[in-house]
Amino acid sequence: MSFQLRVYVPDHPLIKHWLAVARDKNTPNALFKTAMTELGRWLTYEASRHWLVTAETEVETPLAPCSATMINPQVNIGVVPILRAGLSLLDGAQTLLPLCSVYHVGLERNEETLNPSCYLNKLPEKFDPETRVLVLEPMLATGGSIMMVLEELTRRGVNPEFLRVVSVVAAPPALKQIGENYPQLRIYTAFVDEELNDRGYIVPGLGDAGDRAFGT
User: What residue ranges define each of the domains in the chain, with the CATH number in brackets?
Assistant: First the structure.
């Protein structure tokens, strides 16, 4: 591939375990949603490692003063779940980022053209340039949905250097588009699958993550 893109596939046994549970077609809806919550948690943990802004301070232990490092509350953190399927990752992400602001974006894919259309956009008109934004999109397949959201975020002032994407599985078509347009961006995914089928689904993938998470 001629483009540059920073894609991270964490080598963590819990991520591998929950990915296997999510992939299994025999996994019940409730357990599938649990798997997605756990993947959201562990992938967000990895994504936030060198992304959160910290501040040095001092705290009092029961015995003495002690220097300490804490998350800087003055730097805004935004989480953008792409509806519907992105909601399945949100609970896990929020357990690690409890002070984040959540901005919902709802997209629907045309099953004939595979192009997305937006039915809900709760992004602010302008982001503070220091804001860190985490996008939750379980499936990076054709790239249409993620590209639409990234374009909206950068148009509203988000610095691509401060953007992170958490995805359960990704495929080359989406990664190619992101890499050509946002080489600074970092993606954290449990696995990169090889191809899409003629319906634009990742193979082997997860199936329809939204339907499986919400039992529809």
Answer: 6-214 (3.40.50.2020)
